[in-house]
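Task: sequence design from structure.
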């Protein structure tokens, strides 16, 4: 049974699901993929969408009722995809923005598509000082971090975690994104695979599509941690132990010459 920590499942409040029917279709796809728990993560503070905690809770209540009526057995938990802006720590302090599963231990934070904002490290530091572990949403899709994955590795050393999007691993967002996903996973900067689903077609809530590529890049044990163990722990209000991941990652990132021959 899998946990999806990043999914735009609440209808009509961001660029995710457009209708209740679409949300139900997405929920059925998730169940089919073996997902038993989904944290709903509408955008918040990204300059286009503002979804404070109360609105997310209300949307979640309506969606839960619909799933119950339709007998779809998918557990839903509250959450948000929070843009990394200076006002974020204050909003979290006042309870206006949601942590992952509303557990108060970790936050899903998003960067702009192309840049890393000035002062990003300061905001991340501030969140960590508040006792919150930032989970960086799809760093492989950020142009600047793709060029400098070492910067992400530095954030992980600070105490952040990384979330890769399943469809990045399969190449759906192009080769550069897939290559960055592989590099970041092999460097131990990624701890969670999530769907970041927006629709019931194309950007769907499937996670298991990432298993094969990750097994090839980093081995079966790493794939199990990223797809199964770590997301479940975070939804339960626990923190994953990054050391477990380092222990199972291949230490050699390049094949020696004699293995390239086969
Ligand atoms: Fe997202």
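Answer:
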């Amino acid at each position: 049974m899998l946990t999806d920590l990043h999914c735009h499942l609440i209808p009509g409040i961001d660029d995710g699901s457009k209708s209740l029917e679409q949300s139900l279709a997405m929920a059925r796809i998730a169940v089919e993929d073996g997902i038993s728990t989904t944290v709903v993560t509408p955008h918040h503070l990204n300059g286009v969408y503002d979804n404070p905690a109360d609105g997310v809770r209300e949307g979640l209540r309506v969606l839960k009722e619909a799933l119950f009526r339709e007998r779809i057995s998918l557990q839903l938990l509250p959450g948000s995809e929070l843009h990394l802006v200076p006002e974020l720590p204050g909003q979290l302090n006042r309870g206006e923005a949601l942590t992952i599963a509303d557990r108060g231990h970790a936050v899903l934070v998003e960067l702009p598509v192309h840049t890393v904002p000035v002062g990003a490290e300061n905001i991340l530091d501030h969140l960590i000082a508040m006792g919150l572990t930032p989970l960086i949403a799809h760093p492989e899709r950020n142009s600047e971090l793709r060029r400098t994955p070492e910067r992400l590795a530095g954030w992980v050393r600070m105490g952040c975690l990384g979330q890769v999007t399943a469809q990045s691993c399969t190449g759906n967002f192009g080769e550069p994104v897939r290559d960055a996903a592989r590099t970041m996973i092999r460097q131990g900067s990624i701890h969670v695979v999530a769907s970041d689903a927006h629709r019931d077609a194309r950007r769907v809530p499937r996670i298991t599509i990432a298993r094969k590529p990750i097994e090839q890049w980093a081995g079966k044990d790493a794939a199990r941690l990223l797809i199964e163990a770590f997301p479940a722990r975070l939804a339960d209000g626990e923190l994953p132990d990054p050391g477990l991941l380092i222990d199972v990652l291949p230490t050699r990132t390049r094949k020696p010459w004699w293995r390239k021959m086969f």
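The pocket of fe (ii) ion is lined by residues 6, 8, 81, 196 (CB under 6 Å).
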